[in-house]
What we know:
Blueprint: E1 2-5, E2 33-34, E3 43-44, E4 47-51, E5 57-61, H1 70-73, H2 84-91, E6 99-101, H3 112-119, H4 133-143, E7 150-153, H5 155-167, E8 173-176, H6 183-190, E9 194-197, H7 208-218, E10 222-223, E11 249-252, H8 255-264, H9 272-282, H10 285-307, E12 312-314, E13 321-326, H11 332-341, E14 344-346, E15 357-361, H12 365-378
Parallel strand pairs: 1-9, 6-14, 8-9, 8-10
Antiparallel strand pairs: 2-3, 4-5, 7-11, 12-13, 13-15
Helix pairs in contact: 3-9, 4-9, 5-6
The structure holds pyridoxal-5'-phosphate (PLP).
The site of pyridoxal-5'-phosphate (PLP) has 9 residues, from helix 5.
Amino acid sequence: MGVSNISNPSNAASLGLVKSKADIIDQTLKRPFCSIKGNHRRVIMASISSPSSTGHDVNLKLSGDSFIRPHLRKLSAYQPILPFEVLSAKLGIKPEDIIKLDANENPYGPPPEVLEALGSLKFPYIYPDPESRQLRAALAKDSGLESDYILVGCGCDELIDLIMRCVLDPGDKIVDCPPTFTMYEFDAGINAADVIKVPRKPDFSLNVELIAKVVELEKPKCIFLTSPNNPDGRLDCISMTGLAGLRVGYGAFPLSIIEYLWRAKQPYNVSVAAEVAACAALQNPKYLEMVKESLVQERDRLFKLLKEVPFLNPYPSYSNFILCGVTSGMDAKKLKDDLSKMGVMVRHYNNKELKGYIRVTAGKPEHTDALMECLRRVS
Ligand SMILES: Cc1ncc(COP(=O)(O)O)c(C=O)c1O
């Protein structure tokens, strides 16, 4: 795995990929493997024999990480936001009193049909349909696509991972256009692919000319052109179903590709609860439309209010979150921390492209009011 940064057309021609060396294997056995918990514990010790420098055989003990594929040993973990209950305990604030504007979540939740359907699940003890037929039929009706083109997964995250697993051999290349959704680089790393970064322009638009050059020169297997882009929200799409916690998403693919995604996916990737909930949500398009309208309205009000804050520079967004440059010498990470102490969560990214920004999700009107009050207090 390696990462290349390309910032202007002149260096595209002399593109070089950076490969990092594999880590040195720690050969000390720290903990045995236990296959069964409780009284019937079966312990399997891992060891190999190898000639010592004196010519005698000794048992060289291996630690667990020596079994891990070398490129994975240097992979940094994805940085998720804190789970709600953990956050609540940490802040000493009840979950329902936390203003959560740090993720792509819909504060209105799903339509009432979803909770009813989940409360009367008939067969939770039976494995789900591996082809998620009911949900794909509902999505086909909703989207106008034939269901043959639709694959559902445990969130869109699973589908991104699945595409890369099916397409990438170690050393293959992907084009990533940061700042963007960080899972593209993460999944490329898992697949030992090389990441060619073509940064976005200062207004977060794509550097199309440079992408075209890189495609010609490097023949990448995947290019990720995200719409709406996360974190800046260019172009249009809003997550309305309010099912982030149930992990269900879908993608549409050409038939020549979807065939292989079917073969490679986990058979029971969408749970009974997720399929039932998503089908129920799609039965109430009126509610979904109403939620979308409320969020769009609130996003626009939030944008106007954020524009009046002397140390924030919000970017126009077509999604349900707004990226803000933090200006006037104020530190973005400190701002995020100060707001979180007051129970208002916003997103801050600890990477070089975004360390001077925060991302604020549009919530309910009372969430915007609470955020604005806290912003007044920190200024
Ligand atoms: C661009 C992009 N892709 C995928 C996802 C993941 O979506 P899901 O929750 O369906 O896995 C997100 C989440 O915010 C996102 O911003």
